[in-house]
Design goal:
By secondary structure, the protein is of the alpha/beta class. The chain has 2 domains: 2-79 and 173-182 and 203-305, 3-Layer(aba) Sandwich (Rossmann fold), CATH 3.40.50; 90-170, no CATH class. Helices cover 32% and strands 25% of the residues. An 8-stranded mixed sheet has the order 6-7-8-3-9-10-12-11, sandwiched between helices. Bound molecules: adenosine-5'-diphosphate, iron/sulfur cluster and magnesium ion.
């Protein structure tokens, strides 16, 4: 049975120019202990999808559909229930540690605060647990480092602090939003190893624009474009035998595969193109592609594709 089961999710933001449809009719599931990668270009709706799961969006946001976590209906749960779930059950490691960490609080205090909030530890116990967590994410001299402020740490160390905060309450499901963004290759590899080690046996949703990261960590990958899912399959199939022209283009744009960029830019989420949303950038587009909107179809067990070549 799925730990997380998302059906027909639509997340929209009212704006002066119209409704921004950041997540548009998404179905997705994650099993217990499974690692799913959510990939796609900047602005396609990945972070908003993650924030919808933990309901951390401003009050004016419109969310429709159903998100079941362990049979709890997230979109209908009370605010109290959501506070309980966040941290204890589901942790979201937010994108960009520089802005997500409080610049005027010692990192030990920030982790301790999360621990006492969710687990009711007294201050001193929470501080010791925070130091343990810093050690668990391999921050050297953790007892001394706990007294430092975010600006005293490197980008890689700050990401480790974010991971420590996310794991502090021993959640069963972790959403990590761009955990390797902006890191050099060596630090990126270390963070990937760390995520592997510290989240084994937990369910994981890794949000990334880096297919290499998703391929290394995840069992399955879902590809998002302009608010929709376009392809979903095992990491192996996505990397070695992708079917959707966008996924193929995305792979060809990897440095290891020739760095050939997909021409054009992502469409508007206020007024997305009719037909296939990728049609004006697709090398295989036919006339019908600008008229008919393809559905996400299961081509073979576990491999779903949204493209008229397969509909
Ligand atoms: N609070 C918000 N209000 C209005 N639009 C938003 C808000 N948050 C995100 N968006 C828009 O939703 C779209 C998806 O954003 P996001 O999920 O952050 O993309 P990604 O994480 O894939 O880079 C973008 O067009 C972004 O501008
Ligand atoms: S539906 Fe048409 S335009 Fe869209 S990805 Fe498939 S072939 Fe390309
Ligand atoms: Mg994002």
């Amino acid at each position: 049975m799925a730990l997380l089961d998302i059906t027909d999710l639509k997340t929209c933001f009212p704006s002066p120019d119209g409704l921004v449809k950041a997540v548009d009719t998404v179905d997705l599931h994650i099993d217990k202990g499974e690692r799913l990668g959510l990939i796609g270009e900047t602005g396609c709706g990945k972070t908003v999808l993650g924030l919808s799961i933990v309901r951390l969006l401003q009050a004016t946001t419109r969310i429709d559909g159903r998100i079941l976590y362990n049979n709890i209906d997230i979109l209908k749960a009370s605010d109290g229930k959501m506070r309980q779930l966040r941290g204890r059950e589901i942790a979201m490691i937010l994108q960009n540690p520089t802005t997500s960490l409080n610049p005027v609080l010692k990192i030990g205090d920030q982790i301790a605060e999360a621990i006492s909030l969710h687990q009711g530890y007294m201050r001193k116990e929470a501080w010791s647990k925070a130091v343990e967590m810093l050690e668990a994410v391999k921050i050297p001299d953790s007892a001394e480092r706990a007294h430092q402020y975010p600006h005293e740490l490197s980008g890689g160390m700050r990401e480790r602090v974010m991971i420590a905060m996310g794991l502090a309450c021993n959640p069963n499901f972790i959403i990590a939003d761009e955990p390797t963004k902006g890191l050099d290759a060596r630090t990126k590899a270390q963070i990937i190893d760390l995520i592997h080690e510290t989240t084994s046996k937990k369910a994981l949703l890794i949000i990334t624009h880096d297919l290499g990261v998703a391929g290394t960590i995840c069992d399955r990958i879902a590809v998002m474009y302009a608010g929709e899912l376009l392809e979903e399959a095992s990491s192996d199939l996505i990397l070695n035998d992708p079917l959707h022209p966008y996924t193929r283009g995305f792979i060809n744009s990897l440095p290891s595969r020739g760095l050939v960029p997909i021409p054009g830019t992502s469409p508007s989420l206020i007024d997305p193109p009719q037909g296939c949303r990728f049609h004006n950038r697709c090398p295989q587009a036919a006339k019908i592609c600008s008229k008919k909107h393809p559905t996400l179809m299961e081509i073979e067990k576990g491999h779903k594709v949204r493209c008229l070549l397969y509909n």
